[in-house]
Each structure stands twice: as C-alpha cells, then as structure tokens.
Amino acid sequence: MKSAAAAKPITQAQKDEVLAIVARHKDRPGPLLEILHDVQRAFGYVHAEAVPLIAGALNLSRAEVHGVVTFYHFFNSAPPGRRVLRLCRAEACQSMNGRALEQHAMKKLGVGFGETTADGGVTLEAVYCLGLCACSPAAMIDEEVHGRVTTERLDELLAAGGARK
Fold it and tell me: 101 partner at 20 to 30 Å CA-CA among 19, 26, 62, 119?
C-alpha cells in the first residue's frame, strides 16, 4: 500500500510490543502469519522496522518475512488511511457496473488501488469478493459492507462516514 506520508520510525515501546507478539507465537508451528496478523492489528500495518525484528526472532531472513508481507494483499506495509474503502472487482460486480464505480472512486479520491489520499483520509483497496454477488456492485467501507452501490451512493457513504442510511 502506498501512503501519502512516509511511516515514522517506530518507538522502543512499539519494538517491544512487536517482540512480545513474536514471543506469544514463536513456539507454535508456522507462526509467521499469526504474528503478522497480530502486528497489523496492533499498528494498522506491518512497519518495515518490524520485519527484521520478526525475522531475527524466528531465525528467518528479512526477505522471507518481507515476501510474506508483500505477497498477501491483506497485509499493509504503510499506514492505512483513517478510513478504508474496498471495492469488489469480482465478475458479478464487474458485470453490474463495477468498473464505472472503480473509475468514479479513483477520480473522486485522486488515488489508485493500494493508495491513500494525500490527506491520509481514505485508502482505496481492491478485493475479489465481498459475498454480495446478488447485490452487485459491492463495497466495504471500514468494516461495513454495502450492496447495489452506485456512484451516487458511494459519494453518500463516503460523506456520511460509512454509516448506513
């Protein structure tokens, strides 16, 4: 994910929290994904400075940890916006004007998929199914899913803070 502002260095307290997360999971088989999920829950993303801490504690290379962070779309390597807009790009949504909705969102926000607005307000992400195929096109704002989203409805949702009306 690209962000308008570079991530600030992490504090010693944050480094300690990363190491505490690692300590909770490191004796389990294959703990890397659980660790990365917990780090992202704690900070909203996996900071680049957390990668060598995790790698060292698990006896992995930095490249191995970085590869997992960048391979899975769920993990963010930069701070997300205050709000996250996810647009479904699966076939059902595409067939119901999903591409027009994507183009509208990109134009309105001034960003592409995986990017955050300059003011840090909104991150735009692509997803490949929100489970609302019968109500296409679908969008998720923060953790709230919406179906039959038109360009007008998207504008309303963004203006209303994502609350249902």
Answer: 119
